[in-house]
């Protein structure tokens, strides 16, 4: 009997987005949501830590930066592991890791122990996010890949915002440890659902020559009308058997990937400089300009609100036009917004609310840069590609988190800082533009798949 050849990508594109795929989206959303909540938790418990342990703000700095460094290193290591052992395994292990370490942080007895626990927590957080993004992107049809991946990614900002509401409800009554306790229990509960419900990436299974029946069991949950009897599953990607033993990191620079990889790194790095500088230092600059604490918090919150709205709008646009055009235009618009903010007094609250919201709207392209990475890399090294974009970009976050304070301490005025932020925005726009032009004329070589190589 002749074997049927089923192209998994065509199968996903030609079938409706099923209830099974919505379950995957919800589970990945929960992972990213809890990731955002745990990442933001330290900012809300810092005042209580200073009061209880009688430490200075400077002494707390290593604790605050430990998770950021852990996030970077976790992302850099998790991608290659996921491309070898699978997305699901890494997601489950990393979720358990950051849950357990957040619980350990709740029991910390000194700044040193808390710093260590937060660093290891960051390793888990940094590993979970890129693999959740990758797994989700590998289950959505091409025509809806950007918007559905974006909806899942919004869990990060919603989780970060929710940390403030949870903190205001529990920290005054139960102390700072209660927030970390909640942040530790939630991922452990989530991990149970991940173990029993979340499937492995079907694309990954095809690339790893998993048994056909295992792949068929997953695809039947998407469409029960297709007969998978005696089927062979393929992808429209060439799989070099030797690439399975080589480093996935090396693959990011092979097969004409090098320029695209560097441009994605540069773009995300520059974008996080802007995000962390604005969210970390805009309130301080506005308060020093005579704005009340409440108004400064509202204006900064509008940046995050605008970013969330921008994520969804740009995800919708990227499914309908060139992602390169959408992202490069958005970064260019963010540069103009930074210039506009610089030329208006910070104490003009109404005008700043509008400008900061527009800047956040434009910076929604930051998430789309990650979505673009999921579409740029092939299945064999997609997790590595996405995680390294996020990991390298995290160092931009470290730069942004410290840059505002350094520049202010050296006498820079707020308008000078915002003019300076137009530079990384412009660089990011140029980098994506270069990537788009280059791969329009020199696309990645993806020859027609050989059915036997993936059989």
Describe the overall structure.
With 455 residues, the protein is mainly α. It folds into two domains: 4-207, Up-down Bundle (Growth Hormone, Chain: A), CATH 1.20.1250.20; 248-441, Up-down Bundle (Growth Hormone, Chain: A). The chain is built from 18 helices and two strands. It has helices at 8-14, 19-53, 57-85, 87-106, 111-137, 145-174, 176-197, 202-207, 212-220, 248-251, 258-288, 293-318, 323-342, 349-362, 365-376, 382-409, 414-441, 451-454; strands at residues 4-7, 231-234. A two-stranded parallel sheet has the order 1-2. The chain is globular and about 75 Å long. It starts with a strand and ends with a helix.
Number of domains: 2
Name the CATH homologous superfamily of the largest domain. MFS general substrate transporter like domains
Instruction: Note the overall shape.
Output: globular
| Spatial gap, N to C terminus | 16 Å
Query: How many strands?
Result: 2
Percent in helix: over 70%
Largest sheet: 2 strands, parallel
Which class do the helix and strand fractions yield?
mainly alpha
Corresponding CATH architecture of the largest domain? Up-down Bundle
**Spatial ordering of strands, largest sheet:** 1-2
């Amino acid at each position: 009997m002749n074997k049927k050849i089923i192209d998994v990508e065509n199968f996903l594109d030609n079938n409706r987005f099923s209830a099974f795929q919505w379950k995957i989206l919800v589970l990945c959303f929960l992972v990213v949501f809890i990731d955002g909540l745990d990442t933001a938790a330290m900012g809300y418990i810092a005042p209580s830590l200073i009061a209880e342990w009688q430490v200075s703000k400077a002494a707390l700095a290593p604790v605050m930066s430990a998770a950021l460094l852990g996030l970077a290193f976790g992302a850099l290591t998790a991608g290659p592991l996921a491309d070898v052992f699978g997305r699901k395994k890494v997601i489950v292990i990393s979720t358990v890791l950051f849950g357990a370490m957040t619980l350990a942080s709740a029991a910390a007895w000194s700044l040193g122990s808390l710093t260590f626990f937060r660093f290891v927590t960051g390793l888990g957080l940094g590993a979970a996010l890129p693999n959740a993004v990758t797994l989700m992107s590998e289950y959505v049809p091409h025509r809806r890949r950007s918007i559905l991946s974006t909806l899942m990614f919004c869990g990060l900002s919603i989780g970060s915002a929710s940390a403030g509401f949870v903190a205001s409800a529990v920290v005054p009554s139960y102390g700072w440890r209660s927030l970390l306790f909640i942040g530790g229990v939630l991922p452990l509960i989530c991990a149970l659902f991940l173990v029993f419900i979340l499937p492995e990436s079907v694309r990954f299974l095809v690339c790893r020559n998993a048994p056909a029946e295992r792949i068929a069991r997953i695809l039947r949950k998407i469409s029960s009308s297709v007969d998978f009897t005696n089927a062979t599953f393929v992808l429209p990607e060439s799989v070099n058997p030797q690439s399975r033993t080589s480093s996935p990191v090396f693959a990011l620079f092979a097969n004409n990937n090098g320029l695209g990889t560097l441009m994605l790194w540069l773009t995300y790095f520059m974008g996080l400089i802007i995000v962390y500088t604005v969210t970390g230092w805009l309130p301080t600059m506005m308060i020093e300009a005579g704005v009340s604490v409440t108004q400064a918090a509202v204006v900064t919150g509008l940046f995050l609100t605008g970013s969330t709205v921008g994520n969804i709008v740009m995800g919708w646009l990227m499914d309908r036009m060139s992602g390169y055009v959408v992202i490069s235009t958005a970064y260019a618009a963010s540069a103009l917004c930074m210039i506009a903010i610089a030329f208006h007094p910070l104490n003009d609250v109404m005008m700043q609310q509008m400008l900061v919201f527009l800047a956040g709207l434009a910076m929604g392209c930051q998430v789309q840069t990650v979505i673009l990475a999921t579409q740029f890399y092939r299945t064999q090294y997609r997790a590595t590609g996405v995680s390294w974009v996020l990991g390298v970009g995290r160092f931009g976050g470290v730069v942004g988190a410290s840059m505002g304070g350094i520049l202010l301490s050296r006498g820079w005025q707020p308008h000078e800082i915002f003019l300076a932020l137009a530079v990384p925005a412009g660089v990011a726009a140029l980098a994506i533009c270069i990537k788009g032009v280059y791969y329009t004329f020199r696309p990645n070589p993806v020859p027609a798949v050989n059915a036997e190589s993936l059989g």
